[in-house]
Amino acid sequence: MKTVARGVSLSLILSLPAAAALAKVPYFAAKCPADISVETDRSGRAYVSGKKASVRSMNANYSEIRGAGVTISVARDAGSLIVSYTGKGRAHGVCEVVEQEQAETGGAEPAPAPARVADDVPARDKQACLRAVRKTTHNPKAAVLNAVSSEANNTVTVGVGPQKAPWRCLVKRGKVADVMSQTDEGAL
């Protein structure tokens, strides 16, 4: 019995490094508060605010990226990413994922294409959303945080006020279809 248990333990120990080697940080780009950006490439390398950073993958669903004085935590949850940062002086916050490559779905259905970032959205759509959000919120302090192009409607995320409270705007050819707050009002 001891021999079987040792054999099982040894095979488990030998398989752990192989599993850890397969786990790598996913390909994504995110914007964090305090003007921190984080990007990874398809090879698993990471960059924080444009500078190369170290990556430590704990398992297939969690990695940490360290660089530029911050730690970026990356967790996979049901196909999406949850990215947050911790910095100096107890600074911390949730980052907005602006581009992500979807994991393989095992052949059941194709993975969605990664989101395209702001460069694809026309300036007139962004300006139309800024006007609509300013009018809806009665707050002139609004800025485009992110924009994603789509065939149906472009999605523009607008930050309002000093905390940059997020608002989603659906727009196409300068015509706004919908404006909605993305703030979790239950947490207020």
Shape: globular
Note poorly predicted spans. Answer: 4-22, 104-118
Q: Give the helix tally.
A: 2
SSE run: HEEEEEEEEEHEEEE
User: What is the helical fraction, as a range of percent?
Assistant: 10-25%
Q: What is the residue-mean pLDDT, rounded to a whole number?
A: 77
Assembly state of the chains shown: single chain
With strands numbered from the N-terminus, the spatial order across the biggest sheet is 8-7-6-5-4-3-2-1-9
Radius of gyration: 21 Å
What percentage of the residues does DSSP assign to strands (E)? 35-45%
Which structural category do the helix and sheet elements fall into? alpha+beta
Number of E-state strands: 13
Q: What's the end-to-end separation, in Å?
A: 59 Å
Provide the number of structural domains: 2
The major pleated sheet works out as: 9 strands, antiparallel
Q: Can you lay out the helices and strands and say which pair or pack?
A:
Elements: H1 2-22, E1 28-32, E2 36-40, E3 46-48, E4 51-59, E5 62-67, E6 70-77, E7 80-86, E8 92-94, E9 96-100, H2 123-137, E10 142-148, E11 154-160, E12 165-172, E13 175-181
Antiparallel strand pairs: 1-2, 1-9, 2-3, 3-4, 4-5, 5-6, 6-7, 7-8, 10-11, 11-12, 12-13
